[in-house]
Amino acid sequence: MVYLIAVVATAYLGWGPAWAETQPDRVCFSTAESREKIQAHGLLEPFQLMRATASRLHAEALGVKLCRWQDSLIYELSMLRHDGHVIYVFINAKNGQPAGPKQ
Asked: Does the structure show a pLDDT above 90 at 10?
């Protein structure tokens, strides 16, 4: 249980995967900024993407952040797998397609 709390706290505090820290182009937005950007850019609804991704991966959705990554707006989804591991999934906020560290 303590491990799970530590993993969730890590996700909440933004200490994501190691490669994310090496991406200076990746900037995540506050909730208010995210709402503005969703409306201004006509982005997909994050909660619909979370539900669909959780169902597809057989995982529980923990959270979502909107980030600018290089020249794209992406959602960083935190998912809890049934084996207890937290995974991070990156989805293009405009078209709903998977995004990766090389995008």
From this structure: no
Using CA atoms, how far residue 3 sits from 9, 84, 101, in Å, is 10, 9, 27
**Collapsed DSSP state (helix, strand, coil) of residue 100:** coil
d(CA 56, CA 101): 21
Two structure tokens written together for 75: 């959602």
Angle subtended at Cα 8 by Cα 21 and Cα 81, rounded to the nearest 5 degrees: 95
Tens-place pLDDT, residues 33-81: 999 999 999 999 999 999 999 999 999 999 999 999 888 999 999 999 9
Pick the closest to residue 82 from 61, 55, 60, 64 (CA basis).
60
The pTM assigned to this predicted structure is: 0.71
Torsion-angle region of 54 (φ positive above 0: left; ψ -120 to 50: alpha; else: beta): alpha
Residue pointed to by tokens 């992406």? 74
